[in-house]
Write a structure and sequence with these properties.
With 482 residues, the chain is α/β, with parallel strands linked by helices. It folds into two domains: 23-59 and 157-475, TIM Barrel (Alpha-Beta Barrel), CATH 3.20.20.140; 60-156, uronate isomerase, domain 2, chain A. The protein has 20 helices and nine strands. It has helices at 23-34, 50-55, 62-66, 71-79, 101-110, 119-131, 143-154, 161-168, 184-190, 206-209, 216-225, 234-250, 270-281, 287-308, 324-330, 349-355, 370-381, 399-413, 431-451, 457-475, and strands spanning 41-43, 170-174, 198-200, 255-260, 311-316, 318-319, 338-339, 363-367, 387-389. α1 crosses α19, α13 packs across α14 and α18 crosses α19. The longest helix is centred in the middle third of the chain and has 22 residues, at 287-308. It is globular. The model has no long low-confidence stretch (mean pLDDT 94).
């Protein structure tokens, strides 16, 4: 064979990936995993568009499915010097002309080695091999062959969205929806034949609770158009939010979600809240007023959750659109959001003092600040009945970070204070890969702890099953009237 010819590498998955190296620990992890690997997927936080499942159309092409919409991928390839346009990302208001899908896929394959060691590599390798039966490793000389193979598969009925959801074993999939979303796709899915999984909305009111948004005033008007009350007054605004929460509940929602730069909470008196709202609407507010309003609205959302039973989720500590010129050119969700150090103990104190022991309230907090996970959130979750630990999120959803978070949290809070795993993804085909990785990581950590004598192997089996299935059902009250 010529020295210039490359030996084609095979894309394979180690059946014991992510398990401990030591033999006895690996054997126990393998046994634990065997008990949970086929459990149904119940995911109560994600970003898949419900329209994808409602319309159930074939996916367009491999690049549009696996590369362009996945900011985990686009971020890392951008770091390698690839222009976002070359990954199929369309500029805001730009022409309809985008990069050719085959060229996008070729670029992705050429940069496959840059993903080695990342969670993204594990997810994509799992997707390509387990879902699409790809056997060649992505590379410049295999790119077009893999593309043709994938494109052929995507034409088959068994690779349409609903069929894949059945294959994935998804029982329930929560989407994330704005306060004035018409939820038409959810309505369609509830009456659709052949829809194996239940797709439920999640109420995310950030568009109207964050006055720093340039479109905030317009969003208040949009909220008014879908409500039976005016949003020109503070009381009308709150009434409109209550009404929309009820509309979401009628469509099966079990939770709200709030994406805030900080977890700060403040309880304002009604008079102060009215004056703040009026000041913000009149554009006479100071720089601190938007943050104060967001902090107060977290208190209001907690109060409403005590009334209507929706589980409250908080995602805090992310600097959004760090690359402002890129955000102006391409919009949001291009991978230029990054973690910031975040403090929770004092920030959440007003909310937890008011509602943390309310038996009707559940509060799931996610963080991208790994230090805060074990230092603050886990100790607080070991005291407040309402507080639950969200699964390691975003930059912490990799195997090693998940293990560290589990280890740091369990010693003070125990496994029962978690809320179970959520995939938090826009990349539909990555759902089973993400859950599989989380289950393998959990089993590896349980095996280590069991063999250290912290609990028995039988207890480890019970914890694994509970964490992957029964625990998230309890926390999100799935099956209680759903």
């Amino acid at each position: 064979m010529s020295g210039s010819m490359r030996v084609m590498a095979l894309l394979t998955l180690d059946p014991d990936r992510l398990f401990p190296v030591e033999a006895s620990a690996r054997a126990l992890a393998r046994d634990l995993y065997g008990g949970v690997k086929d459990l149904p997927i119940v995911s109560f936080h994600g970003h898949v568009d419900a329209t994808v499942l409602a319309e159930d159309r074939p996916f367009v092409d491999p690049a549009a499915l696996l590369v362009t919409p996945d900011h985990y991928v686009t971020r890392r390839l951008h770091a390698a010097g690839v222009a976002l346009e070359d990954l199929g990302v369309r500029p805001v208001g730009g022409s309809a002309t985008v990069a050719d899908p085959r060229a996008v896929w070729a670029t992705f394959c050429a940069h496959w080695p840059t993903l080695a060691g990342t969670a993204t590599h594990l997810w994509l390798a799992h997707t390509l091999t387990e879902l699409f039966d790809v056997s060649d490793e992505p590379a410049p000389d295999t790119a077009q062959g893999i593309y043709d193979h994938l494109a052929s598969r995507l034409e088959a009925p068994e690779f349409r969205p609903r069929a894949l959801a059945r294959r994935f074993g998804v029982e329930v999939l929560a989407t994330t929806d704005g306060p004035f979303d018409d939820l038409a796709a959810h309505t369609s899915l509830r009456g659709a034949a052949g829809s194996a999984c239940r797709v439920i909305p999640t109420f995310r009111p950030d568009a109207v609770t964050d006055p720093s948004r340039v479109d905030w005033l317009g969003n208040l008007e949009r909220l008014e158009t879908v409500s039976s009350t005016s949003t020109s007054t503070y009381d009308g605004f709150l009434a409109a939010l209550v009404e929309q929460r009820q509309r979401f509940r009628a469509q099966g929602a079990v939770a709200t979600d709030h994406g805030h730069r900080t977890p700060r909470t403040v309880a304002l008196g009604r008079g102060d809240a009215v004056r703040l709202f009026d000041r913000l609407r009149s554009a006479q507010a100071g720089p601190e007023d938007a943050e104060l309003f967001r902090a107060h609205m977290l208190m209001e959302m907690a109060r409403m959750s005590c009334d209507d039973g929706l589980v409250m989720q908080l995602h805090a500590g992310v600097v959004r659109d760090h690359d402002r010129p890129a955000a102006q050119r391409y919009g949001t969700d291009i991978g230029a959001d990054f973690p910031a150090a975040t403090s929770y103990t004092e920030a959440l104190r007003p909310l937890l003092e008011a509602y943390g022991s309310d038996p009707g309230f559940t509060f799931v907090v996610y963080t991208v600040d790994e230090a805060a996970f074990g230092r603050e959130l886990a100790p607080m979750a070991s005291y407040y009945p309402a507080l639950r630990l969200g699964s390691p999120w975003w930059f912490l959803d990799s195997p090693d970070a998940m293990r560290r978070c589990l280890s740091a949290a369990v010693e003070s809070a125990g496994f029962s204070r978690f809320a179970g795993f959520v995939d938090d993804t826009r990349a539909f085909c990555s759902i089973p890969a993400r859950h599989d990785m989380a289950r393998r990581t959990l089993c590896a950590e349980l095996a280590r702890m069991a063999l250290e004598g912290r609990f028995t192997p039988d207890a480890a089996h019970a914890i694994a099953r509970d964490h992957c299935d029964a625990l998230p059902r309890r926390v999100f009250r799935w099956g209680q009237g759903t």
